[in-house]
Amino acid sequence: MIITRRAFTAALSLTGLAALAGLSPLRLIAEAMAQSATDVAKPVSLPDMALGPANATVTITEFASMTCPHCAAFNEQVFPKIKAEYIDTGKVRYIFREFPLDIKAAAGSMLSRCIANGDGPKYFAVTDMLFRQQNDWVTKNTTETLARIGKQAGLSQPQVEACLKDQSLLDKIVADQKYASEVLKVDSTPTFFINGEKIKGETSIEEFKKKIDPLLKS
């Protein structure tokens, strides 16, 4: 469920996040536009956070919201299997892109970006932590819990506050979300692209294998 604008303000009280309150994260355009692997591969405003070799035969791009329970379940149950079988063996490059469905998700994504500071493995580690602690920071005191997570990762309280008020970072996340919505037709999370082919919703490892294995053999 998308949190209301009033709840955004009450939950966060962060001026840098207020801009998202008036945004519809699911804006679509009427014209059907075909997605291509090139369209998916294009990072718009923010550099991609990725695991696996850049020249891997298969690239999986996930669009997820940090407050999405289906995304959290996928992260816990399916992603480790993909990582062990395909990413760690150099067969797949895995890209994670933010598609925040509410202001709290945007805050979580911003914190991940600030902590990682461009380091892909570190970004995935922080994102994993946020997904696993999703119930704590989404349903309880968001700002205090995110500050605690930031401190655990080495940020000071002022650095966490500066991160969550970084309007430039928020604008880039919103711009990339807009591109995903309008060009790639992402309208729910999680959404995956495997070499440009879209898969919507929480997906089993078996379904991923059906898509990945033939591409590795071709």
Rg calculated over all Cα atoms: 17 Å
| Number of distinct helices | 11
Largest sheet: 5 strands, mixed
| Low confidence ranges | 1-34
Element order, helices and strands? HHEEHHEHHHHHHEEH
SS elements, strand count: 5
Given the C-alpha coordinates, what overall shape results?
A: globular
Helix/strand structural class: alpha+beta
Overview of this protein structure:
With 218 residues, the chain is α+β, with helices and mostly antiparallel strands. It has helices spanning 5-12, 37-41, 69-77, 79-87, 103-116, 120-132, 134-139, 142-152, 157-164, 167-182, 205-217, and strands spanning 49-51, 58-64, 92-98, 191-194, 197-200. Strands 1-3-2-4-5 form a five-stranded mixed sheet, sandwiched between helices. Helix 5 runs antiparallel to helix 6 (120-132). The longest helix is centred in the C-terminal third of the chain and has 16 residues, at 167-182. It starts with a helix and ends with a helix. Residues 1-34 have low confidence and may be disordered.
